[in-house]
Write a structure and sequence with these properties.
Helix content is 38%, strand content 28%. The protein has 5 helices and 5 strands, in the order βααααββαββ. Strands 2-3-1-4-5 form a 5-stranded antiparallel sheet, covered by helices on one side. A hairpin with a 3-residue loop joins strand 4 (112-116) and strand 5.
Length: 124
Amino acid sequence: MTSKITKIIITDADNTVGSKLIEIINSFENNSLVPTWFRLKLENLKDDDLWENEYLMKYDVWVNKMLDKKWKLKDIQVRDFSIQIDLELFGKSNYSELLSIISILGIDLNNVLVEDSYFGNYTP
């Protein structure tokens, strides 16, 4: 199966947010525990939060999506107020679990550009 590369570019995000994003993704990629603060944020989401942002999801749903993900992290670059995440996709284009992390970290999705190998460039 051929893989494709997709980039998620986040603007107007400081280094602290970049560090937290890396911490969450690496914890899952390395089969270690997801940070407690992140798990608690997902577990404590209200129905209104879920309706307001289609990418937010409860913790158990997020874990299941991460277990079934069709991408592999290639690289994360954190620069002054921008983050670029490079993903290798395997057969489909779906990374709503990453958009959930981005949303939980308080990043406005209008500041996110997805350069998708299948669907072109778009803002979620």
